[in-house]
Design a protein that fits this description.
By secondary structure, this protein is of the alpha/beta class. It is built from 10 helices and 10 strands. The two termini are 33 Å apart.
Length: 238
């Protein structure tokens, strides 16, 4: 479904990724964990087209998309819920959600009628968003804003979804709620690549996991194996 091979990328003249290799198979949840500054978010940005790789390849459903624009990659079925959520605060909750469907649906005739079905699916998953659909997104709590960011990505009906640090800045009780949502997405068969600071929680929900260090994949394997790996335990699981 999604395959990354020998990926190199960075900012300006500084290279952050030094040959990243990973794969996300259809219907699975893959976790990417590692210390701050390891290159996890840069990997997500290079996959989704937010930055252009300097070398290597990104393949989505058999199509090499490295070098494509972010909008073109999105149209091919990849949705990115970015670190920090990046919602549009002055817009209503519902307008934020509708933006997620903009690339997929016709601009003039039929947009709202077709988008309505997707809105109802998102509202069924996140009843709180339906209650607040006319509220300015910037007035939502941190947990609600994360729900909105995930909901907006779902509006694109993605083949693959990237979730970058969905628990960032949230209270522990809200983090549990966010991971309950991630489990529901997994149960629904959505293909997911998850970057997460809470390594233990990420491994508990993942089918497969990669550990990134200094711009490369250092360790990979089934979560049960990584949870017994002394190197992973010492660095990420305590």
């Amino acid at each position: 479904m999604l395959k990354v091979e020998d990926l190199h990328a960075g900012y300006g003249g500084a290279e952050v990724l030094n040959g990243v290799n990973l794969e996300v198979k259809q219907g699975t949840l893959v976790a990417l964990i590692g210390a701050n500054g390891a290159g996890k978010t840069t990997t997500m940005r290079a996959i989704s087209g937010m930055i252009k790789p300097s070398a290597g390849s990104v393949t989505l459903e058999g199509t090499e998309v490295d070098g494509y624009s972010a909008s073109r990659i999105a149209r091919l079925g990849l949705a990115h819920s970015p670190e920090g959520r990046k919602i549009f605060g002055p817009l209503s909750v519902e307008d934020n959600l509708l933006l997620g469907a903009y690339r997929r649906l016709p601009r003039f005739f039929g947009f709202h009628s077709q988008a309505q079905g997707e809105l109802e699916k998102v509202y069924a998953l996140f009843p709180r968003l339906k209650e607040r659909r006319l509220q300015h997104a910037g007035t939502l709590s941190g947990g609600e804003q994360q729900m909105l960011a995930i909901g907006r990505a779902l509006m694109a009906q993605p083949k693959v979804m990237l979730l970058d640090e969905p628990s960032m800045g949230l209270a522990p009780v809200i983090v549990q709620e966010v991971f309950a949502i991630i489990r529901r997405l997994k149960e629904a068969g959505i293909t997911l690549l998850l970057v997460e600071q809470f390594a233990k929680s990420a491994l508990e929900v993942a089918d497969y996991a990669y550990v990134m260090e200094r711009g490369k994949i250092a360790v990979e394997g089934a979560p049960a194996e990584l949870q017994k790996d002394e190197r992973v335990i010492a660095a990420y699981l305590g």
